[in-house]
Amino acid sequence: MLPNRFVKMAGGGNDFVVFEADGSRLAEAERRQIALLCRRGLSVGADGALFLRPGRNGEVRLDYFNADGGLASFCANGTRCAARYAARRGLVETQEPVIETGWGKIRSHVAADEVTLWLPPFPAPGQAIPVSEEAVAPVALPMDVGVPHLVVFVPSDLADLDIARLGPPLRHHPAFPSGANVDFVQVINKNRIYVRTFERGVEGETLACGSGVVASAVAAERQRCVESPVACGTQSGIDFVVSFTEKEGMMTDVMLTGDAREIYSGEFGPDAAKP
Hints:
The protein has helices at residues 28-37, 76-88, 163-171, 210-222, and strands at 5-11, 14-20, 48-54, 60-66, 71-72, 98-100, 105-111, 114-119, 122-123, 129-130, 139-144, 148-153, 181-189, 192-199, 204-206, 230-233, 240-247, 250-259, 261-267. It is an alpha+beta fold. It has a 19-stranded mixed β-sheet that branches.
């Protein structure tokens, strides 16, 4: 069974149920419990669950599960929340905790409720691929920022886009056997974009996606629409800042900065994981 006590956190609009526990060997029944706890309206509600424990050499180990109970290699906003939790609650004796994720070790800096991540190098965007007729553009850019993303540029007002209709067919694009997060992007000016993301594992739009704004900023630079650093507006109304350089086909010195807040702590009631 999962721990009965939890902390609720949010990073730029992504919200999480946080456990100070080992999430590396969860049984299928515990993963189903995560999915039940993440339901909005019927339980606590969240985009995912974070499991934190002391790692090696003073680092912090993070296991991340999507809202459907599926294990994911990386969640940028979850990692930022993990860094703030670790620094604030004494899992580490530093404001620059290193978080061990399924993607690799992520360096961070915690400054009050603002957290910056330094991401591992990753390949520059791939060649544009054709997308469904349901999309708003004929092609999109594939990227992997610890998890797969498909970036679609929108020429009109992104606020009016029907993400619930457009997201699912692109999330299951045949170029991604395991599916992808879909980022819809509107370029505002040379240093600002607006991003809305349909996330796999949540199977719906979230208020923000950390790896999504990174993918979107990098893809927009590849299209010569922006220059680093890039301010990224999201559905939560909270901005992120992404900076990066490209060297020999790899994105390096990638930084993601945004807020990470601890909202409340609590204890699950007897009906929290009721089917």
